[in-house]
């Protein structure tokens, strides 16, 4: 049976439906992400009778759906970082029929938090605590100023009513302010009941305001009267109700309904299927891993559920494609039985990447990490999985260099751009076939992809183009790492200019007589393609970077304490480092870097895919936000 539009309900009825779990959230919904400002703007829109769009609910009546899929309650006490996920509601057995929110979760959660809950976010200039701490993240409730609205030039949000999330201390501090009266919005639910709209003013609003000393305040009268009517009497929750119990049809409706917002990852839908067969709370387990990879100082990479699920498929030797059949009970059981090891491997993999110099900015294609995790999971070292030893810098340096070289090459070639499932499947087979080699089979991988549209080799034009990459481009790290793999991996390395950036400002250049006399040379010095590109960049450890600062290159190199020689820059001792000779420095170093690149990567005269652009921005939508 198809759905239909139903009669709208009041906000209070929606709140009651949330309280008694007549409204639930399906696992396919994302976590709540709205800010306090968005919630305040929503309430302002409601108060001003602005449309807030139609909601979509799904009547869940099938016992099979209740048993097979997971549903969650609405957030009550949101706390940044520490309470962002919803609580699981067991709907198995004889659980009553209910409505799952297909479209409108963020709005409905915002309304519920505003009326019944709290919102906690970190205080400014306060360190993040290790655990939830009300001092650092004090709970705030939604209040409405009954004294006056919002006006003036600072009203960028163009709101009329002054809604704010305030702490108890803030509310207490405002009590001495004669220009404000902060009414806790949720208290409107406990005010006396009336039988008709025309009784609101005389039987509810005026008695309350008289008690609070605001009976003569016209703004307070209008605001509280409007708030009461909005929450208790107005039928403002308009919704479409889907009655079909065909899960495939409902998932299709869900995708189409949400396509206007942030694009859906199909893994969000598969999560609902996978976690139904997971003992415990799969979403919580996966979200905790995602949070650790994002927040730990040893990693700080952004990954999403889709990446985790695809990695689980890869590591358990399953088909990596996102198909419903790949998340059946048997596969989920295998994943869960190995979850502890899979989780440890993922953490070790991203810890390794951090030690190899990657950060979230330079790791442009997260799917490229999955084959590395697979190799570390399947390969062994001293009769233990390799991921247990790979981050120990006292061992396996050659292995790390091979892994690093492969990853930098595929990132620069854009191998994992677009649909990566084919590459992942092929890498899965290749790595499995060569596990007995006991080292990462870099040469075999390159050979296997040669002549395909995922060719990992570089041609001459491509190599020259790499040297034009500018400082700040995420590919800088990969190019410099391929050029200088021998730099000590025990050190945290930064990218910095050799001839300092400050020397190439318009003001600085105008002070050089030799440039004033030569317009073409001045143009060369001003062009960032020269001074801001790879030829004038290098990897420096933290102490070297601090000592370098804006010091002239020749002066800095002459200081023996820097630990950097001209040979380290691939220049012979006869090469001048004087700023006057930057033109020759640029040419000599660029040629030396080109020779080194030719040696460190696999070069081809003609690639199978010359149309792949150097500036290909692969997998930008790969990570959830």
Automatic annotation (TrEMBL):
Pfam families cross-referenced by the UniProt entry: GmrSD_N
Domain GmrSD restriction endonucleases N-terminal, first and last residues per copy: 14-273
Protein name from the UniProt record: GmrSD restriction endonucleases N-terminal domain-containing protein
Organism: Halopseudomonas oceani
Lineage start: Bacteria, Pseudomonadati, Pseudomonadota, Gammaproteobacteria, Pseudomonadales
């Amino acid at each position: 049976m198809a759905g239909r539009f139903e009669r709208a309900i009041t906000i209070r009825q929606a709140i009651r439906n949330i309280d008694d779990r007549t409204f639930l959230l399906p696992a396919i919904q994302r976590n709540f992400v709205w800010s306090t400002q968005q919630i305040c703007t929503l309430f302002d829109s409601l108060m001003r009778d602005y449309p807030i769009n139609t909601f979509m609910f799904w009547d869940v009546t099938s016992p099979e759906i209740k048993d097979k899929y997971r549903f969650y309650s609405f957030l009550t006490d949101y706390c940044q970082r520490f309470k962002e996920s919803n609580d699981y509601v067991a709907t198995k057995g004889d659980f009553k029929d209910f409505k799952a929110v297909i479209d409108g979760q963020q709005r409905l959660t915002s309304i519920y938090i505003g009326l019944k809950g709290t919102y906690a976010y970190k205080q400014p200039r306060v360190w993040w605590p290790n655990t939830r701490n009300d001092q650092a993240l004090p709970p705030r409730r939604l209040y409405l100023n009954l004294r006056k609205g919002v006006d003036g030039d600072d009203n960028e949000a163009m709101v009329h009513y002054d809604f704010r999330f305030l702490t108890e201390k803030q509310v207490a501090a405002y009590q001495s302010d004669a220009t404000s009266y902060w009414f806790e919005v949720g208290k409107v639910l406990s005010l006396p009941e009336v039988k008709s709209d025309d009784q609101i003013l005389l039987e509810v609003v005026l008695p309350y305001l008289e008690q609070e000393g605001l009976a003569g305040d016209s703004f307070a009268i209008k605001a509280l009267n409007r708030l009461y009517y909005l929450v208790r009497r107005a039928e403002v929750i308009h919704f479409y109700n889907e009655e079909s119990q065909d899960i495939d049809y409902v998932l299709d409706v869900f995708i189409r309904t949400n396509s206007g917002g942030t694009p859906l990852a199909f893994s969000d839908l598969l999560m609902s299927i996978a976690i139904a067969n997971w003992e415990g709370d799969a979403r919580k387990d996966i979200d905790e891993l995602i949070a650790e990879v994002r927040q730990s100082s040893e990693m700080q990479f952004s990954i999403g559920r889709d990446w985790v699920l695809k990695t689980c498929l890869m590591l358990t030797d399953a088909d990596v494609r996102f198909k419903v059949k790949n998340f059946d009970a048997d596969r989920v059981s295998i994943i869960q039985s190995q979850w502890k090891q899979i989780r440890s491997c993922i953490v070790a993999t991203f810890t390794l990447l951090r030690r190899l110099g990657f950060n979230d900015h330079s790791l442009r294609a997260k799917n490229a990490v999955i084959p590395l995790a697979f190799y570390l999971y399947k390969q062994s070292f001293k009769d233990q999985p390799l991921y247990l030893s790979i981050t120990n810098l006292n061992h396996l340096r050659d292995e790390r260099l091979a892994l690093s070289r492969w990853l930098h090459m595929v990132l620069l070639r854009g191998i994992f751009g677009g649909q990566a499932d084919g590459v992942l499947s092929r890498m899965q087979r290749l790595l499995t076939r060569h596990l007995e080699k006991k080292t990462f089979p870099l040469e075999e991988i390159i050979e296997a992809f040669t002549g395909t549209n995922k060719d990992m080799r570089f041609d001459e034009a491509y190599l020259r183009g790499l040297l034009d990459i500018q400082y700040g481009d995420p590919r800088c790290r990969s190019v410099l790492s391929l050029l200088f793999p021998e730099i000590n991996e025990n050190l945290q390395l930064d990218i910095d200019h050799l001839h300092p950036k400050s020397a190439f400002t318009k003001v600085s250049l105008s002070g050089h007589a030799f440039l004033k006399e030569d317009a073409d040379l001045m143009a060369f010095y001003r062009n960032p393609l020269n001074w801001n590109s790879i030829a004038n960049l290098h990897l420096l450890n933290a102490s070297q970077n601090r000592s370098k600062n804006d010091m002239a290159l020749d002066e800095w190199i002459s200081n023996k304490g820097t630990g950097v020689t001209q040979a380290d820059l691939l220049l012979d001792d006869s090469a001048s480092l004087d700023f006057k000779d930057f033109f020759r420095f640029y040419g000599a170093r660029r040629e030396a870097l080109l020779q080194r690149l030719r040696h460190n990567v696999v070069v081809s005269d003609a690639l199978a895919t010359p149309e792949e652009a150097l500036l290909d921005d692969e997998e930008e939508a790969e990570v959830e936000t």
